[in-house]
Automatic annotation (TrEMBL):
PANTHER family noted in UniProt: LEUCINE-RICH REPEAT AND WD REPEAT-CONTAINING PROTEIN 1, OPTICIN
Family from the record: Belongs to the LRWD1 family.
Gene name linked to the record: Lrwd1
Organism from which the protein derives: Oreocharis arfaki (tit berrypecker)
Chain positions covered by the region annotation Disordered: 215-239, 256-290
A single GO molecular function term of this UniProt record: chromatin binding
Localisation: Chromosome, Centromere, Kinetochore; Chromosome, Telomere; Cytoplasm, Cytoskeleton, Microtubule organizing center, Centrosome; Nucleus
Family annotation (Gene3D superfamilies): Ribonuclease Inhibitor (3.80.10.10), YVTN repeat-like/Quinoprotein amine dehydrogenase (2.130.10.10)
Protein name per Swiss-Prot or TrEMBL: Leucine-rich repeat and WD repeat-containing protein 1
InterPro entries listed in its UniProt record: Leu-rich_rpt, LRR_dom_sf, LRR_LRWD1_dom, LRWD1, WD40/YVTN_repeat-like_dom_sf, WD40_repeat_CS, WD40_repeat_dom_sf, WD40_rpt
SUPFAM superfamilies reported in the protein's UniProt record: L domain-like, WD40 repeat-like
């Protein structure tokens, strides 16, 4: 019979408790406990336990399923522990002591530093800097060595057409060889190095052998088909980017047949009724030559290749650090894009399709990502510009990730309800807007982290909304004064100037849009972006409705008072799908004067509006009498996964880089498609 009972747990709680679920601190020291006494079924009821003292017992290891999701402090001094790897089941652990366990060595210290991403104190010592080195620099070096070892000695040993037995044989040889020959760091850490090398090598093999096994597609149609990355285990608060981020995450066993993408130059009738029968080729339009490069499945829950349910929501291209290039996006633009959906955020190289880094929070569903560039002090008062990624979603928490360092250095508990979208100010690098289901848009100053990643965030402003904000956009000509938001029940504008003194503000204006024969303010706006300094593109839940309208002619900046109703001055309407499905958002490429929007069939509608914008810029510019047809529609290719077509494909988002070299398409079926313009 176990020594641990419900009554004992209640009695040893600090303070004593009447319910197991209420216990936050528990002292089980000096009870002569052995591993078998730790009953997982009983411990699973300690859902809110944060501090556990198991010192002065006879434990030789931990059971693998104690289920203590909130454990922060653990004392295991004076036991007989032989292994520490089971401690990875406590992802929020911040303080750990296991002194006087004679079988544990320095190698075990390094293992827990790698496994426990939140660990700050180990045996009473602050290990923050050393742990960051172990997780980042050490892992990066070992990954490089493992990859080089495969390329030099084993890559050519595997025949192009190979059997399962050959794969099994080379895997065994490679694992043995790499653990013997890859050496890094002092000899006192050789056991830890072998442990990490084996882990990295197994992850690498999952990628490389999966790549070589797929050879059944035709050459001109074949895409890179690497097996999905499986570099990290789910951790509720794993605030570090995946350690092995050099392996791609392609959908395996995929056949792609590219359907002919037809250019749609149909002209609509003078009225607003869409008429495909009146197709005409008289209108001149640029036919964009774009080919699908990669189809990735890198956001799968639990790294499952069978996951075609995870929704992908947001993607943003990384800024180019050279300020000169950033001022002129045509000169140069990044090919690295951040994507989010489900429990993960990924950084993808669009050219190679490589998943460079992956950040994962098992209990989160990420809805939005945004970049900013901070000038940080690195050492000896020297400064350097670094790109910082903000990610947020269902938990209402903003994660701040220093991508170059593979490190999530902090979080902001911004809202009590989910965050729909985030964006940074283009003029104030530390100013971040968060729009939430609590019907508020908050402006934060995230601060600049010091060399130890200490930072201080503060809330500067709260904008009250009448309904849930879905999309937000700062007005390009005055980004420190006005913000637009597309909401569940309309399109609104706020004055966000900080010198006004009023911290909580109602909306200043709500915009009316055409609705059959009248004007209405009540409609869902699930797409919103600026095409240039003045032209706004907004998408309504009304079937087939994308409007282009003038900010300067619609908004009366001289008017007084708030919550005023203003009529949007419509410049044109874009012909789009007749679906009434919501949340298929749009984007723009201002430098190329393009608008993009996906539909309910996996297609991307592209509109080149360069021939219209000069006329719209005129003070006398009038509304186009007919709907503007798409320049081109990129059809979703015939994609087969393991011989079967994926389920119904919705395009949730589609984004081009500033120079319109790549087009990233996010879908409802956990597939990221990357197209490249020829």
């Amino acid at each position: 019979m176990s020594k641990i009972t419900t009554e004992l747990l209640l009695e040893r709680a600090v303070p004593r408790s009447t319910r197991l679920r209420k216990i936050e601190t528990l002292n089980l020291s000096k009870l002569q406990l052995k591993t078998g006494d730790l009953d997982p079924r009983l411990f699973s009821r300690l859902r809110h336990l944060q501090k556990l003292d198991l010192s002065d017992n006879l434990l030789d290891k931990f059971p693998n399923s104690l289920t203590l999701p909130d454990l922060r402090v653990l004392n295991c001094n004076n036991n007989k522990l032989e292994d520490v790897t089971a401690l990875k089941q406590f992802p929020l652990l911040e303080e750990l002591t296991y002194e006087n366990n004679v079988y544990l060595t320095l190698n075990d210290d390094y293992k827990v530093m790698f496994l426990l991403q939140n660990l700050r104190l180990l045996n009473g010592k602050d290990i923050t800097k050393l742990a960051n080195h172990v997780r980042r620099v050490n892992s990066r070096k070992l990954t490089s060595k493992v990859t080089a070892h495969w390329e030099k000695f084993f890559r050519d040993q595997l025949p192009e057409k190979h059997t399962a037995e050959q794969v099994k044989s080379i895997k065994k040889k490679f694992l043995k060889s790499v653990q013997t020959n890859v050496v890094y760091g002092p000899s006192s850490l050789s056991e830890f190095t072998r442990w990490r090398v084996k882990m990295i090598a197994e992850e690498f093999l999952a990628y490389s052998l999966g790549l070589e096994l797929n050879s059944d597609t035709e050459p001109e149609e074949k895409m890179d088909e690497n097996e999905e990355e499986s570099t990290e285990s789910p951790r509720e608060a794993a605030e570090d980017v995946a350690q092995v981020g050099d392996f791609s995450s392609y959908i395996s066993n995929v056949t792609v047949t590219s359907s002919k993408r037809k250019r749609n130059n149909s002209k609509s009738s003078p009225g607003n009724k869409r008429s495909k029968s009146q197709a005409s080729t008289e209108e001149e339009a640029e036919d964009v030559s774009a080919e699908p490069l990669h189809f990735l499945q890198c956001h799968s829950k639990g790294n499952s290749r069978e996951d075609f349910k995870t929704q992908l929501w947001s993607c943003v291209f990384e800024p180019v650090l050279d300020s000169g290039a950033r001022k002129d996006p045509i000169v140069s633009s990044s090919r690295t894009v951040a994507t989010c959906g489900g429990e993960s955020v990924c950084l993808i190289d669009c050219e190679t399709g490589t998943v460079l880094k992956k950040y994962k929070v098992a209990t989160e569903e990420f809805f939005s990502v945004a970049w900013t560039t901070l000038t940080m002090v690195i050492s000896d008062s020297r400064t350097k510009a670094h790109n910082i990624l903000a990610a947020a979603g269902r938990r209402g928490i903003v994660k701040l990730i220093h991508v170059a360092a593979d490190f999530c250095y902090g979080e902001i508990k911004a809202h009590k309800k989910p965050i729909a979208t985030v964006c940074f100010s283009p003029t104030q690098e530390t100013h971040l807007f968060t729009a939430s289901y609590d019907k508020r848009i908050a402006l934060w100053d995230i601060g600049i982290p010091d060399c130890d990643y200490n930072f201080k965030a503060s809330q500067l402003l709260v904008l009250e909304t009448a309904s849930i904000p879905l999309r937000i956009a700062l007005v390009p000509t005055c980004p420190e004064q006005y913000l637009l938001a597309g909401c569940e029940d309309g399109c609104f504008a706020w004055n966000i100037k900080l010198d006004k003194g009023q911290k909580s503000r109602p909306f200043e204006a709500i915009f009316q849009f055409p609705d059959d024969e009248s004007m209405t303010t009540s409609h869902r706006v699930d797409g919103l972006a600026f095409l240039n300094d003045d032209v706004v593109v907004s998408k309504s839940s009304k079937p087939g409705c994308i409007y282009l309208w003038s900010w300067s002619r619609s908004f009366d900046a001289k008017g007084k008072g708030c919550q005023r109703t203003m009529s949007a001055v419509i410049l044109a309407e874009l012909e789009w799908s007749t679906t009434d499905m919501s949340y298929l958002t749009l984007s723009t490429c201002p430098a190329k004067e393009y608008v993009f929007c996906g539909d309910e069939k996996g297609s991307v509608w592209m509109y080149n509006l360069s021939s219209y914008t000069s006329a719209w810029g005129s003070a006398k510019g009038k509304r186009s009498e007919r709907r503007i047809s798409p320049t081109q529609i990129l059809k979703w290719p015939e994609l087969r996964v393991n011989g079967e077509q994926p389920p119904e494909i919705l395009v949730n988002n589609v984004v081009a880089d500033p120079a319109f070299t790549y087009l990233v398409v996010l879908t409802s079926v956990n597939i990221t498609a990357i197209w490249k313009k020829s």
